[in-house]
């Protein structure tokens, strides 16, 4: 992320580009043939208000729509296309046309098709008497055509009686086991889409209850309608399979045996061994690379259970968590045997492994103002450490740099750094008290990590160490995710430093001073994430269909120092400088909580409005009078109130005059942030945005170094900063680059202009932000 205050040249350049495109778009019919018309507008109106059908939901049925408009009026993409010349063989014209959008030429036949599509959509909704009128307005001078589709819905058809005909006692019992799930109800519209929904629901229900061969084609609907009545009697018929000339009952299947072949890609003639474990027949090759216990936990196909397509899907998902596997395929074989009135089914799970180990080398050379250096790193991964598909990652790195210049007579003339990280990820909960049934309900992983870094210069020796234990789990659809940091340790220690070292390198930079002071944090944390966005959905989708509105909720809580404080109290540890210390270092003690909510409303496939709000509070107590710097909140920056640079806003009315010296003081214990952003796809990979941001940070105590930062209920709303601005984004589908221009509107800082919106000053109030990804 890069943030800088702006210069006028950038805005002038951007304005010139926009103006050039707008001027080109003024001749919007430049590439429209002389005897044709540009489709300027295509609207859908409904003559009678109906709560079941909205006009904006019917635009997707139009076979021809006008060129896209930015902000509802500017056909920017068409303007880019019109910047090309008439000769389509020239490379420049080809390139410009690919960036833009070809003019939409009015086609009467497509208009008629649109009307038919709209009528069919109304019929499917239950409005079988709907009328579609086409109203065209031709502007001969401007060579433009406007089309309006006026819909008169008429009285809809509603369901009066619903009958389920199921001539099978077992099927009937399953279907009506949960009557609350039935989607068809008397009094509702005779909506054909609801019929498909009910057919899909019943098919899934039966296939999850043993009916392996059942398909949706066995379900049909018979509607009894009358020309004089708007009510429909509906009958759902579940047909039986046909064998020869006779009907036969639907067969229900029980899993007889489960074979798991771990040598799916073994060469012919490879000796195989079969063992029976945990109810499964495990087929191994010479390398038994997975232990039976992990296979048992990741397989949801159980002997004696009814066949379930849900269990098949969950087995695929669980096996995909095992990094050692590259291929999974599940097949079933019906047997000519019965048990308890059900057919028998053998299941075979074929799996094959990928490479177990990998190693990567990194080399780099450095030149820091003439001081030459070299660095090297090695990353080693083992994807099956103990034959449970554990992922072991080991990183080792070292660097050396020669130092020149005045080192005040110190002997060492070099900088050396050696670091190592070790991490192990288990594809399950590593907690023996949890039962298999619970571990199978969720997709979980456990992470252990250790890190150590040793730095040595002539002036100091610094050690940075860390350790952690983390649990992650989520539901099948990944719409709810949780992370529990059981232990997270951060340790910085300077065993040796020269006299006045910190005063020498950082006389006016408190943040740099903090980096070279001893500190110790041992924390525990929990975070929760929830969304209605299904896995794989992207807000950068380019479908012509209107995407579903998306919300995202994030909650987090953490605490530090409580266990150490309890031990200190129980062992009657002596305080030093009015604080308990571990290894001679004061440990931090605090509580912290955060909450954030984002809502994306898609007006159509190209325009959306995103609303965001988040808040947080951190409270020091016990062994700490202040929350550690890296755990406090900050304001401003590309993901904050964008009229300010990162960490240049607040706390409260704090008057910042020097971004370097005040950097360490511009953090707080309370955070409140709100934002609204309009996003529109322009052309090619370009997107535009307009935004309004509001927020600030405050301190929970009245610290002497942060005057004006204290949070007060009767005054905080006056100290909320406001900003507005515009942005350009490059959406490459897999990643997004963002350039935002933020302008101050209300500045709460004391002794500064409070309302830059009224009294603007470009150099003082404008800030550019370059970042990757959306701000929220």
Question: How would you characterize this protein structure?
Answer:
- The protein is built from 13 helices and 32 strands.
- The strands form six sheets. The chain has a 17-stranded antiparallel β-sheet. Strands 11-12-10-14-13 form a five-stranded mixed β-sheet, covered by helices on one side.
- The two termini are 14 Å apart.
Quick structural overview:
With 776 residues, the chain is of the alpha+beta class.
The quaternary organization reads as single chain
What's the gyration radius in Å? 34 Å
Spatial separation of the terminal alpha carbons: 14 Å
Overall pLDDT level: 86
Strand content: 35-45%
**Helix/strand class:** alpha+beta
Number of helices in the DSSP assignment: 13
Write the layout of secondary structure elements.
Elements: E1 2-5, H1 8-26, E2 38-46, H2 76-81, H3 91-99, H4 108-125, E3 131-139, E4 144-152, E5 158-166, H5 169-175, H6 192-207, E6 219-226, E7 229-238, E8 242-243, E9 246-247, E10 253-261, E11 273-277, E12 280-284, H7 292-298, H8 309-320, E13 325-339, E14 342-353, E15 357-368, E16 371-382, E17 391-402, E18 414-426, H9 436-441, E19 443-456, E20 460-474, E21 480-497, H10 501-505, H11 510-515, E22 519-531, E23 550-560, H12 562-570, E24 581-582, E25 585-586, E26 590-602, E27 607-620, E28 670-681, E29 686-698, E30 721-731, E31 736-746, H13 762-765, E32 766-772
Parallel strand pairs: 2-4, 5-7, 10-12, 10-14
Antiparallel strand pairs: 1-32, 3-4, 6-7, 8-9, 11-12, 13-14, 15-16, 16-17, 17-18, 18-19, 19-20, 20-21, 21-22, 22-23, 23-26, 24-25, 26-27, 27-28, 28-29, 29-30, 30-31, 31-32
């Amino acid at each position: 992320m890069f943030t800088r205050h702006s210069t006028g040249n950038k805005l002038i350049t951007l304005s010139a580009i926009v103006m050039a495109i707008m001027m080109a778009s003024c001749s919007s019919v430049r590439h429209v043939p002389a005897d044709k018309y540009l489709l300027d507008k295509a609207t859908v109106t409904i003559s009678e208000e109906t709560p079941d059908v909205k006009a904006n939901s019917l635009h997707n049925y139009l076979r021809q729509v006008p060129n896209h408009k930015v902000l509802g009026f500017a056909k920017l993409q068409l303007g880019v296309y019109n910047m090309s010349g008439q000769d389509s063989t020239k490379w420049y014209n080809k390139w410009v046309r690919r960036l833009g959008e070809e003019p939409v030429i009015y086609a009467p036949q497509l208009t008629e098709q649109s009307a038919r599509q709209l009528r069919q959509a109304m019929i499917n909704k239950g409005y079988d008497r709907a009328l579609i009128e086409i109203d065209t307005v031709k502007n001969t001078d401007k060579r433009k055509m406007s089309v309006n589709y006026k819909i008169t819905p008429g009285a809809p058809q509603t369901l009066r009686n619903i009958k389920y005909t199921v001539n099978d006692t077992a099927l009937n019992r399953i279907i009506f086991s949960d009557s609350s799930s039935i989607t068809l109800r008397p009094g509702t519209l005779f909506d054909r889409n609801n019929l498909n929904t009910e057919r899909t629901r019943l098919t899934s229900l039966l296939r999850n209850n043993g009916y392996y061969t059942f398909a949706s084609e066995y379900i049909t609907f018979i509607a009894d309608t009358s020309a004089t009545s708007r009510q429909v009697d509906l009958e759902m018929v579940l047909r039986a399979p046909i064998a020869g000339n006779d009907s036969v009952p639907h067969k229900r299947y029980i899993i007889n045996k489960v074979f798991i072949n771990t040598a799916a890609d073994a060469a012919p003639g490879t000796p195989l061994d079969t063992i029976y474990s945990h109810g499964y027949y495990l087929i191994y090759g010479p390398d038994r690379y997975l232990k039976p216990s992990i296979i048992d936990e990741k397989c949801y196909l159980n002997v004696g259970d009814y066949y379930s397509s849900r269990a098949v899907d969950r087995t695929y998902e669980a096996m995909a968590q095992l990094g050692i596997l590259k291929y999974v395929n599940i097949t079933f074989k019906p047997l000519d045997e019965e048990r308890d009135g059900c057919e028998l089914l053998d299941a075979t799970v074929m799996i094959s492994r990928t490479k177990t180990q990998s190693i990567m080398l990194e080399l780099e050379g450095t030149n820091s103002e003439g001081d030459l250096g070299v660095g090297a790193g090695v990353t080693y991964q083992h994807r099956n450490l103990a034959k449970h598909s554990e992922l072991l990652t080991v990183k080792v790195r070292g660097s050396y740099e020669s130092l020149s210049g005045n080192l005040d007579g110190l002997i060492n003339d070099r900088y050396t750094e050696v670091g190592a990280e070790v991490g192990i990820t288990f594809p399950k909960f590593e907690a023996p008290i949890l039962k298999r049934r619970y571990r199978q309900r969720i997709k979980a992983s456990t992470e252990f990590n250790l890190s150590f870094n040793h730095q040595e210069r002539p002036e100091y020796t610094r050690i940075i160490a860390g350790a952690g234990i983390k649990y992650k789990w989520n539901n099948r659809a990944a719409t709810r995710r949780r992370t529990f940091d059981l232990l997270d340790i951060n340790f910085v220690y300077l065993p040796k430093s020269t006299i006045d070292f910190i005063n020498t390198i950082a006389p006016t930079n408190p943040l740099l001073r903090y980096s070279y002071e001893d500190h110790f944090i041992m924390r525990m944390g929990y975070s929760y994430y929830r969304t209605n966005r299904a896995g794989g959905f992207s807000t950068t989708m380019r479908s012509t269909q209107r995407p579903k509105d998306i919300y995202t909720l994030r909650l987090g809580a953490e605490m530090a120092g409580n266990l150490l404080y309890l031990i200190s109290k129980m062992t009657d540890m002596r305080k030093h400088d009015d604080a308990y210390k571990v290894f001679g270092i004061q440990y931090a003690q605090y509580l912290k909580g955060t909450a954030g909510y984002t809502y994306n409303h898609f007006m159509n496939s190209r325009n959306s409005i995103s609303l965001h709000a988040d808040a947080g509070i951190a409270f020091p107590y016990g062994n700490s009078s202040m929350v550690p710097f890296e755990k406090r909140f900050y304001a401003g920056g590309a993901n904050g109130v964008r009229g300010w640079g990162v960490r240049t806003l607040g706390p409260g009315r704090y008057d910042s005059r020097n971004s370097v010296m005040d950097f360490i003081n511009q953090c707080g214990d309370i955070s409140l942030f709100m934002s609204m952003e309009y996003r529109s796809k322009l052309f090619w990979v370009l997107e535009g945005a307009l935004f309004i941001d509001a927020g600030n940070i405050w301190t929970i105590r009245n610290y002497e170094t942060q005057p004006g930062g204290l949070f007060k209920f009767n005054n905080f709303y006056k100290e909320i900063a406001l900003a507005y601005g515009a942005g350009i984004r490059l959406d490459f589908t897999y990643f997004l680059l963002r350039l935002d221009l933020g302008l101050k509107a209300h500045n709460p800082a004391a002794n500064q202009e409070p309302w830059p919106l009224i009294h603007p000053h470009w150099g003082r109030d404008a800030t550019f932000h370059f970042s990757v990804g959306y701000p929220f």
